[in-house]
Write a structure and sequence with these properties.
heterodimer; A: 267 residues; alpha+beta; 5-stranded mixed β-sheet; 8 helices; B: alpha+beta; Flavocytochrome C3, Chain A, domain 1; 5-stranded antiparallel β-sheet; disordered N terminus
Chain lengths: 267, 647
């Protein structure tokens, strides 16, 4: 690899998936980038490319992004086959170009799953996740009816474990990484978060049943223990949560006719 | 500058603050407000724009009460609103640590922290409801940090001498938002809330002078939509991205509030912007946004610069006696925990003295060496692990070994649409919640108070005060066939068509960057009259440049992010002028607004209570036309204005 002669940046060849709409057929497009600063984030590299595309009147690459701090869950991308790129526990927006060598070729694709239809280019529709939460990913407590916060102590280890699961950012990397496009890590994280806390106990069964049913309805696949989800998860959600979800589901299924569906009536 | 200042503030600025003893006002006001019986609530349709803490909590709470609610958000999911990124915590006057906190003290600290430019009655209400927010969130399953005994943990934050901040690791905003989002989704599942994601509000629709709906654009299909209702709640956040580089998410914008302003809602105190002291410094021209490092780091990190100007040695090679821990030296009682405005300005002063560190010289150190020696690396990791990890990812440096480099960045905007005690704007039926309004933080917001205000407005204030409008006014049925909807839609369509028709040579992003640089240099941490005058000229020139030379590829009939951004930039270019005007008009220094002409001999802010103890509410008179200034006088009955001192 010869050193760049003029600028001190990296030369990068980018193969990017372009698709003009949900029903259009897509294809890879290749762009050569000169002098990419190693301090740039991956998305800033795409910004710079988009600016040059706009400058020449071409259509810029669409990609989802917002906070660029790794917490909103908007950014996605499969980079060289890895959801959110090669770095462990790192969202695409937090991936920096210093991890690439001069002359590298990088392939960028959208998160692919039947339940995540492509909107345009690298943008996909992840509203299936919202519908799963709407089915049962909550504790039914109307505003104003809460008891004093310290009236219900929660042991620190339990609270910490709940937090480990609550850290999910809903990005969908678990689905993109799974060969079955399963959403089980996402669903398990929410079921675990709420199951571990005593506040979540009253709706334990109905929640597990409703969320799993909603997940199946959206067309996500099932878990066959590849654990790719856990490897791809930018927040390190433990795959053992899936086992907990399965226990919760089994337990709820064995109980007789639990109340199903969403919120109980009335304020 | 317009001379049409209304002397009295006029009837258009009736704050509707209740009378009586401060601590009883909210209770009394709630009793005096009309009620709507549960069976009648379903007859009302409310439109909520935005799903951050304020929007999600309001929509969920109102739907629980029985109102029909439509919610729109700009992101692909309501869970991604920028409240999610708040790290440090949420204040509440629980006094669990038994260190002397109370509703009164939180009220007092917030009024003082805001440099006496907030409405006392609003702030008192905020402090009062703060405790119930924590109850509500815990019941929803928000996994706040806990002590080994199982009870909730607290930590201290800038501007306070008590520990009243509740937190969930460094992800408090995320956890609170996910709590509100889950409550919202529960109502979506129950069919009481209609949720529309990837929608951008483009105009407010007034019928007989009352806000009765909005025009929005579906960002995926490009279609325009009309939504009619009995009230509109704008929960659309702040305008920090007028500076281009800020800690705000990329989609944060002023469009919704600005369009409402153009329809007649007054905009208050736009010059009150907050610069957060602890952000990761800019690394180059490609920088797309800035990342905040939670203020909670100042509990254990010590801020310093080399004592000698231009000292380029690596930080660990600079001996103890050649370091200047300037915050501890200048402000011995608050030390590293001085409020944000003071910490930010001090960092700028050190860099102006050429003591700044790093390649650019625009940074100071935040050093954990002593805390690690005192408490162990593991203890520090438990407290701030995720923040340290984030820092290392972005900079490639290990903050356990090398001090962090930090520099201030725009973070929050205290100004916003003017609202009365009911959170209603000067347009009847338009309510404004959270960061989008101007109400509670005065000229400077204390750390961990934004989350508190967003949730206070949504969970506890609006559910009571919305009835003042719904039960208090005769609302004729309105449908989207009304001429006002057609007019608003065609004006929105026209503006987008105009942007697409320019076909010039510059990207909207490059114009936005140039605007941001002007705002940061001349309307940022230190402002003066001449600089603000230059900024005003530059803003007008950039606005012209935009409309003559912007280039937006593609069309408006599908998903076009460049077009979305260009529309927001066009609004920032109008709004920026108001911000700079307001900054020039306010001839004093207070909170986040520092006018170099108005400082004490030792460089502290000099407030002018005689002439500026008011909220400046601006009335739109046309793009490029001088807006009219209305003043809401601020009366301090309890916390008497004093020089804010953290020494």
């Amino acid at each position: 690899m010869s050193a760049p002669t003029h600028a001190k940046g990296l030369r990068i060849t980018l193969r990017v998936w372009r698709q003009s709409g949900p029903s259009a057929s897509g294809a890879f497009e290749t762009h050569a980038l000169e002098s990419v600063s190693p301090d740039m984030s991956f998305l800033e590299m795409l910004d710079v490319l988009n600016e040059s595309l706009v400058g020449t009147g071409k259509s810029p690459i669409s990609f989802d992004h917002d906070c660029r701090e790794g917490i909103c869950g908007a950014c996605s991308l499969v980079i060289d086959g890895h959801a959110h790129g090669p770095d462990a526990e790192t969202t695409t927006c937090q991936l920096h170009m210093r991890h690439y060598r001069d002359g590298a070729t990088i392939t960028v694709e959208p998160f692919r799953a039947n339940a995540f239809p492509v909107v345009r280019d690298l943008v996909v529709d992840r509203s299936a996740f919202d519908r799963i939460i709407a089915a049962g990913g909550f504790i039914s407590v109307n505003t104003g009816s809460a008891p004093e916060a310290n009236s219900l102590p929660v042991g620190k280890p339990l609270a910490d474990e709940a937090m480990d699961n609550a850290a999910c950012i809903g990005c969908g990397a678990c689905v993109a990484a799974c060969p079955n496009a399963s959403a089980m890590l996402f669903v398990a994280a929410k079921i675990s978060h709420l199951k571990l806390l005593p506040q979540g106990a009253p709706e334990r069964e109905s929640r597990a049943l409703a969320m799993v049913e909603a997940m199946d309805k959206e067309g996500f696949g099932n878990c066959t223990n590849h654990y790719e989800c856990g490897a791809a998860c930018p927040k390190g959600i433990p795959v053992s949560s899936i086992a907990r979800m399965n226990r919760e589901f089994l337990r709820a299924s064995l109980k007789s006719s639990p109340p199903r569906g969403a919120a109980p009536e009335g304020a | 500058m317009s001379d049409t200042t209304s002397k009295s503030g006029g009837s258009r600025l009736d704050s509707k603050v209740p009378s009586g003893p401060m601590a009883e006002r909210w209770t009394r006001h709630k009793f005096d407000l009309k009620l709507i019986n549960p069976a009648n609530r379903r007859k009302f349709h409310l439109i909520v724009v935005g799903t951050g803490l304020a929007g999600s909590s309001a929509a969920a709470s109102l739907a629980e009460m029985g109102y029909r609610v439509t919610v729109l958000c700009i992101q692909d999911s309501p869970r991604r609103a920028h409240s999610i990124a708040a790290q440090g915590g949420i204040n509440a006057a629980k006094n669990y640590p038994n260190d002397g906190d109370s509703v009164h003290r939180l009220f007092y600290d917030t009024v003082k922290g805001g440099d006496f430019r907030a409405r006392e009655s609003n702030v008192h209400r905020l402090a009062e409801v703060s405790t119930r927010i924590i109850d509500q969130c815990v019941a929803q399953g928000v996994p706040f940090a806990r002590e080994y005994g199982g009870l909730l943990a607290n930590r201290s934050f800038g501007g306070a001498q008590v520990s009243r901040t509740f937190y969930a690791r460094g992800q408090t905003g995320q956890q609170l938002l996910l709590g509100a989002y889950s409550a919202l989704e529960r109502q979506v599942g129950a069919g009481r809330v209609k949720l529309l994601a990837r929608r951008e509000m483009l105009d407010l629709v007034l019928v007989d002078g009352i806000a009765r709906g909005i025009v929005a654009r579906n960002l995926v299909t490009g279609e325009y939509e009309r939504h009619a209702g009995d009230a509109v709640l704008m929960c659309t956040g702040g305008y920090g991205n007028v500076f281009y580089l800020s800690t705000n998410a990329k989609a944060c914008n002023v469009t919704a509030t600005w369009r409402a302003h153009k329809r007649g809602a007054f905009f208050a105190n736009p010059c009150f912007t907050q610069i957060h002291p602890t952000c990761i410094p800019v690394s180059g021209d490609h920088q797309s946004k800035l990342t905040l490092m939670s203020e909670s780091l100042r509990n254990d990190g010590r801020v310093w610069v080399p004592e000698r100007s231009g000292d380029k040695r690596a930080p660990n090679e600079i001996p103890e006696n050649e370091r200047d821990y300037y915050l501890e030296r200048l402000y011995p009682s608050f030390g590293n925990l001085v409020p944000r405005d003071v910490a930010s300005r001090s960092a700028k002063e050190q860099c102006d003295l050429k003591k700044g560190v790093g390649e650019s010289g625009m940074a100071v150190y935040l050093d954990f060496r002593d805390a690690i020696a005192r408490d162990s690396e593991d203890a520090i990791r438990a407290r701030y692990g995720n923040l340290f990890q984030m820092y290392e990812r972005i900079t490639g440096e290990d903050p356990y070994r090398v001090p962090m480099r930090i520099y201030p960045a725009v973070h929050y905007t205290m100004g916003g649409l003017w609202v009365d005690y009911n959170l209603e704007s000067t347009l009847p039926g338009l309510f404004v919640l959270g960061e989008a309004n101007f109400s509670d933080h005065g000229a400077n917001r204390l750390g961990a108070s934004a989350l508190m205000q967003g949730l206070a407005d949504g969970y506890f204030v609006i559910p009571a005060t919305i009835a003042s409008h719904l039960a208090g006014r005769k609302l004729a049925p309105v449908t989207t066939d009304h001429a006002a909807f057609a007019e608003a839609e065609s004006s929105a369509r026209e503006r987008i068509a105009r942007i697409l028709s320019v076909q010039g040579k510059r990207s909207a992003d490059s114009i936005h960057r140039e605007l941001g640089l002007t705002m940061w240099n001349q309307c940022g941490m230190a402002r003066d009259k001449a600089g603000l005058g230059q900024a005003l000229e530059k803003i007008r020139a950039l606005r012209e440049e935009f409309w003559e030379n912007v280039r937006v590829p593609g069309d408006s009939k599908n998903f076009n992010q460049t077009l979305e951004h260009a529309g927001r930039v066009a609004d920032f270019l109008e709004f920026a002028e108001l911000l700079a005007l307001d900054a020039r008009e306010r001839e004093e220094s207070c909170g986040g607004h520092f006018r170099t002409e108005h400082q004490t001999p030792d460089g502290e802010a000099r407030r002018d209570d005689e002439h500026f103890s008011h909220a400046s509410a601006w009335e739109f008179k046309g793009v490029g036309e001088a807006p009219a200034l209305h003043k809401e006088p601020l009366n301090f009955e309890i916390v008497h204005p004093s020089t804010r001192s953290y020494k």
